[in-house]
Amino acid sequence: MKKKVISILLTAVLATGMAACGSNSNTADNSANNTADNTQNTAETSTESTGSADSAEKPVLTVGMEGTYAPYTYHDENGTLTGFEVDMANAIGEKMGYDVQFVETEWDSITAALDAGNFDAVMNQVTITDERKEKYDFSTPYIYTRPVLIVAADNTDITSFEDVNGKKAAEGLTSNFNEIAKSYGAEIVGQDKFALAMECVLSGEADCAINDELTYAYWKQQKGGDESTKIVAESDDVNASAVMLKKGNDELVEKINTAIDALIADGTVKEISEKYFGLDVSQP
Prior knowledge:
Elements: H1 2-56, E1 60-65, E2 74-75, E3 81-82, H2 84-96, E4 99-104, H3 110-115, E5 121-127, H4 130-133, E6 136-138, E7 143-145, E8 147-152, E9 168-171, H5 176-183, E10 187-190, H6 194-203, E11 209-212, H7 213-222, E12 229-234, E13 239-246, H8 250-265, H9 268-277
Parallel strand pairs: 1-4, 1-5, 9-10
Antiparallel strand pairs: 2-3, 5-13, 6-13, 7-13, 8-11, 8-12
């Protein structure tokens, strides 16, 4: 009887030992597999890290713009930031060998954001003016256009810029069009978005608006050729627009100028212009 008990116990011990060895064997196999997987993952991670490092080494040009000023900078039906200035910024960045990042900012605070260093440059059909040149540097111009005076279709009181004296003009408070309107004696109705400025004109909240001829043409096109407004006067002054930067960054200005000159020479600016306006806006 004792022999049977001892035999049973020995069998159990041996079975347990064999099971334990089998378990160790599987663990070893799993460990080897995990080590191989980890080595492969490490290699992949190393490759990915190298790619990220290469990308990180590429300089970045940060550009401030409204994102609400069609056709220069706006969002399409899918919510993607697009427009003439977006295409121009990307083309400039490509010529410079830079990545481009956009920072959307309301127009009335865009210069303050540039001053604060929120971005490197502003591209938003920024007109070059003597006042702005006192504080900021500008690139080579690549947009030429002229201001126009817009009124409701049934308005017969305003037929010239001189007629806006004492009238209400819907203008962005920091725009050059605001300065033009004030120079003719207009009372300003602050409105930083062109579409809303047009609503002010149509509702009677404002008597007129002075703005860029291309912006008005695009707005009217988007309205299906709507005849609810009209241009009654065109300025003889041609406005030039360019990239605006803080003073003191001469190296970046030079790089941007070189890129713009090349884009004008190879026809890229003309191509982008015709895409959005149907004509070349890079020539005065």
